[in-house]
């Protein structure tokens, strides 16, 4: 485990066999909850990343804003359940007393990236966000709690985990670029990032 600007970096958290099982589980989720193109609030500009979710809640973004909701924005169906191996990953990495409620699945094709952002749409900001990467490697940047704070980069490979918790929970972070063709895990290439989140406090106030 390494500290990257307060983020906990766990290289090789998942081995090859676990990654293959997880890739299959994600393919099944995508069959039930197809990838959608999120759009920026106000401008409606399309993200370069496509998304879906599993869990009781899923994160969506459209012209009206960012939010968590119970169902898929296009099919209206409830999100598929979070696979047990992801609940196990949360239990191993999160150090938090309840289960995650949402798993955002980010899909990176050629040229996709993710701008510097904070994850702050969760009421349970005392819970960390746990990230797992599959497929092609990507340059992940993490800074401080202000957009202009100094940042560090780390190349995330298939199977690596990142935990943003504690003082780093509200750190700005993003994906500068994906290194196309760096992994053979995913049949169609590209990169998948999973972020497990607790949205609501354990005992609602
Ligand atoms: C990505 N990750 O790796 C984007 N968010 O594709 C995130 O936005 C992220 O890695 C919260 C915590 C960890 C993360
Ligand atoms: Fe994020």
TrEMBL record:
2-oxoglutarate binds at residues 106-108, 191-197. Its cofactor is Fe(2+). One of its GO terms (cellular component) is cytoplasm. GO terms for biological process: oxidative RNA demethylation. Residues 99-200 form the Fe2OG dioxygenase domain. Gene3D superfamilies: Alpha-ketoglutarate-dependent dioxygenase AlkB-like. Fe cation binds at residues 117, 119, 173. The keyword Amino-acid biosynthesis does not apply. SUPFAM superfamilies: Clavaminate synthase-like. Substrate binds at residues 59, 66-68, 121, 147. Binds 1 Fe(2+) ion per subunit. It comes from the Bacteria. InterPro entries: Alkb, AlkB-like, AlkB-like_sf, Oxoglu/Fe-dep_dioxygenase_dom. One of its GO terms (molecular function) is broad specificity oxidative DNA demethylase activity. Keywords: Dioxygenase, Iron, Metal-binding, Oxidoreductase. Transmembrane segments: none annotated. This is Alpha-ketoglutarate-dependent dioxygenase AlkB.
């Amino acid at each position: 485990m390494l500290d990257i600007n307060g983020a906990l970096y766990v290289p090789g958290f998942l081995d090859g066999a676990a990654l293959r099982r997880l890739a299959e589980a994600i393919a099944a989720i995508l069959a039930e909850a197809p990838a959608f193109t999120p759009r920026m609030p106000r401008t409606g500009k399309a993200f370069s990343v496509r998304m879906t979710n599993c869990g009781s809640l899923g994160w969506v973004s459209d012209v009206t804003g960012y939010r968590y909701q119970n169902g898929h924005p296009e099919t209206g169906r409830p999100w598929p359940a979070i696979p047990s191996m992801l609940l196990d990953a949360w239990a191993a990495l999160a150090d938090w007393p309840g289960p995650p409620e949402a798993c955002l699945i980010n899909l990176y094709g050629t040229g996709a990236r993710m701008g510097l952002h904070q994850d702050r749409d969760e009421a349970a900001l005392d819970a960390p966000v746990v990230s797992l990467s599959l497929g092609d490697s990507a340059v992940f940047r993490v800074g401080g709690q202000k957009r202009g704070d100094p940042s560090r980069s780390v190349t995330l490979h298939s199977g690596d985990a990142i935990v943003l918790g504690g003082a780093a929970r509200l750190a700005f972070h993003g994906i500068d670029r994906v290194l196309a063709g760096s992994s053979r895990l995913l049949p169609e290439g590209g990169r998948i990032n999973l972020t497990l989140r607790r949205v609501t406090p354990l005992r609602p106030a």
